[in-house]
Amino acid sequence: MTLNNEKIELITDCTIDRKDGNIEFAEMKNSRFCAVVSECDFSGSEFHRTNLSGDYFESSDMSGAYFEEVNLSGAGFERSNISGAAFTDVNLRGAAFEGCDLSGVEITDCKLDGMTVNGYDSSELIEFYKNNHKDNGNMKKNARKAIIAGNWKMNKTRPEAKALLEELKPLVADVKSVEIVACVPFTNLETALSVTAGTNIKIGAENCHFEKSGAFTGEISADMLAEMGVEYVVLGHSERRQYFNETDETVNKRTKAALAAGLKPIVCVGELLWERECNITEEVIARQIKLDFFAISADDVKKCVIAYEPVWAIGTGKTATAEQAEEVCAFIRAQLAKLYSEDVAEAVTIQYGGSMNAKNAEELVSKTNVDGGLIGGASLKAEDFTVIIKAAENG
Ligand code: 13P
Q1: Do the first three CATH levels of 2-133 and 144-394 match, i.e. the same topology?
Q2: How many Å lie between the centroid of ligand 1 and the Cα of residue 375?
């Protein structure tokens, strides 16, 4: 059978078996399709569970078409527009594409061995696709500024804080592409702000309360920090959750208070070791992201930084592998895309934290979805912290 100049809309579960003659193309049920298709318009058509094995398509428009569970093994495509088409669970073994526009094609869970495009076989193409894909990811990554933030925790007196920052300043003075932040104890904020004034080092606090003011002995409000010139604030750190009973609800309230005061929250999420061992890392992270950012607008979430800090990696010397860090950071981005939009997800800086040091930083920050780090121990040594910052410059 030969098709010429046809408009085809939906082909599903086909059984027609190499018959000649006219066919109604609005919907073909259970068809075995035909041998030669020439100059046909399949743009935007859907093909489901159809056997097109060995068939030949030339000079046809298949742009934006959708192929699902279709057998295209040994099929030939010549001078056809296949741009923007999607192939899901399709058998493309031995299929050949010659002179076709394949821009923006999506291929998911397909069998590709022996497939060729303009004479290149599928293994070369897969390699090309992977590199290309990485480039795309990296382009998006490059659009985000990496942030390397030190979390000093309960360390350093004022003179020690001053000495550390004085040592750090000249070491990082030429860094432009990375945002450098030192999150310091409340008692060091004033010192840190004055030592770093006019430099490329920003100052953050390690927590803030969610109320604006009132009878909350020992607490510090977001407004108090903002008034001092503090820019960042770490919220929901696992040590606060673990030792000071902070919950996702209070992290959510603190995040809203920080945003209202004009601070940039660094919101920490991460699973416990037993949660990872029970294979519920994604559930834990999804829950934290959903609750910590509950009722926070898309514009506001873009002002936040998210730090993925697996609790088992904090202060233990046990770093997550770069692959584990990438996997969860990518998962966090996917959650943001789900809760907000692709644009919001691509705009948010997602850091890794947990035993990041001068030796392992380069590999961690090279990952597509890891936009820097939240560093504890290694941020207390100017030289080590500098090595991490320089790694992020190249990452
Ligand atoms: P360490 O880098 O000391 O493991 O601490 C990580 C951390 O908790 C940063 O917030």
Answers
A1: no
A2: 5
Longest Cα separation, the chain: 91
At 195 the three-state DSSP class reads helix
Amino acid in the structure at residue 296? I
The residue whose C-alpha atom lies closest to atom 7 belonging to ligand 1 is 376
pLDDT digits (tens, 9 = 90+) for 17-68: 333 333 434 344 444 455 667 777 778 778 888 778 888 888 888 888 888 8
Residues constituting the chain:
395
Pocket perturbation via mutation, ligand 1, pick of 305, 308, 314 by most ligand atoms within 8 A of CB: 314
Q: For residue range 296-331, list pLDDT tens digits in order.
A: 999 999 999 999 999 999 988 888 999 999 999 999
> Please, are residues 156 and 184 in contact by the beta-carbon 8 Å criterion?
yes
pTM: 0.69
Q: Is the CB of 263 under 6 A from ligand 1?
A: no
Q: If you classify domain 2-133 with CATH, what class do you get? A: mainly beta
Q: Of 158, 170, 155, 146, which is closest to residue 382 (Cα–Cα)?
A: 170
Provide the residue ranges of all domains of the chain, joining segments of one domain with +: 2-133, 144-394
**Domain 144-394 coded CATH 1.10.10.10:** no
The CB of 318 under 6 Å from ligand 1? The reply is no
For the CA of 234, the closest atom of ligand 1 is 10
Provide the annotated active-site residues: 237, 309
Distance CA 67, CA 231 (A): 50
359 CA to middle of ligand 1, Å? 15
